[in-house]
Structure formats: structure tokens, C-alpha cells
Amino acid sequence: MNTVKEQLHNVIEKLSDAEANTILKLVENVHRKETLDDSLQSLRSSSIKIPNTSSQKFHYVEPASALGKSASQQLIEDRR
What is the rounded distance in angstroms from the CA atom of residue 26 to the CA atom of residue 29? Predict the structure, then answer.
């Protein structure tokens, strides 16, 4: 009996280049997600704490207003 990899190889041989490219992208995305999940899991088990996505968001703060040129504008002029 053929192994799963042999069966997959047989199916891939019958695909067009465009279909094979689509399958390749799918496999890469699945592998990338698994690698990311493993990385996040190892981080969770370490001393680094990752906040939950449901944690409270930061509230909006109105930018401070000041007289004169902004610091970024002064830096731009300084470099010219």
C-alpha cells in the first residue's frame, strides 16, 4: 500500500503548474502557521507574558498642542 507521501506525489505529478503553485502556497501557509503557533506556545511557557487579545485596549489621548515649530519640523530643517 502507498504511503500518504507517495499518494500526494502521484497527485502532484498530475497537476498543472498553476495548480501546483496554489497547493505550494497553501502548504507554506500551513507550515508558517504551525511554526508561529509553536513559537507562541514556547513564549507562553517562558517568563515573557503575552497579553490576551481580549485584554483592554488603550484609550485615545489627544495630542498636546504647543506654540512654534514641531520637533520633527525642526529636525528636518536642521538636516538641510
Answer: 5
- Categorise residue 64: left if φ over 0, alpha if ψ from -120 to 50, beta otherwise: beta
Residue 40: closest CA among 66, 13, 48: 48
3-state SS record for 11-38: HHHCCCHHHHHHHHHHHHHHHHHHHHHH
User: Does the reported pTM lie above 0.70?
Assistant: no
Q: Which residues 6+ apart lie within 8 Å of 57 measured at CB? A: none
Q: Write out pLDDT tens, residues 28-65.
A: 877 777 777 777 777 666 666 666 766 677 788 888 88
What integer is the mean pLDDT of 20-30? 83
Q: Which three cell numbers stand for residue 50?
A: 503575552
